[in-house]
Amino acid sequence: MTIEQIWVDADACPKVIKEILFRAANRKSLPTTLVANQLIPVPKSPFIKAIQVPSGFDVADNFIVQRANIGDLVITADIPLADEVLTLGCLALNPRGELYSKENIKQRLNMRDFMDTLRGSGINTGGPPALSQADRQAFANQLDKLISQ
Predict the structure, then answer these.
(1) Are the beta carbons of 147 and 98 closer than 8 angstroms?
(2) Computed over its alpha carbons, how large is the radius of gyration of the chain?
(3) Residue 117: helix, strand or coil by DSSP?
(4) 33-76 pLDDT, tens per residue?
């Protein structure tokens, strides 16, 4: 499957991951759109653009879902968004290089909901670990594999 477009859920996407995406977009002449409710600086490139959407719950996610097409790649750490775009026939990759799939998304949604319940009951679950060099490399490798097909 050839990827025609990359969509980035950019509000929480780490800067180093965006930089990897910028290089890949220019190297492969691949349209890449960052969507966020804040202004995201992007390099001058005919392949890269940023779209600022209004603030609000899931506004950026909904923007991506409404515009993504079969075979597009969506970069997100948001598991419900990944689930939605997988249903549309898109690929979904998180910033740690983990490819979401129909086989693993339900388990991830269940774990997310469980952790949300724990947090809601006052238990401090901590956040995700900082993005490591191994995570960056895993993301770059998985991205390269996906856009080189």
Answers:
(1) no
(2) 15
(3) helix
(4) 999 999 999 999 999 999 999 999 899 999 999 999 999 999 99
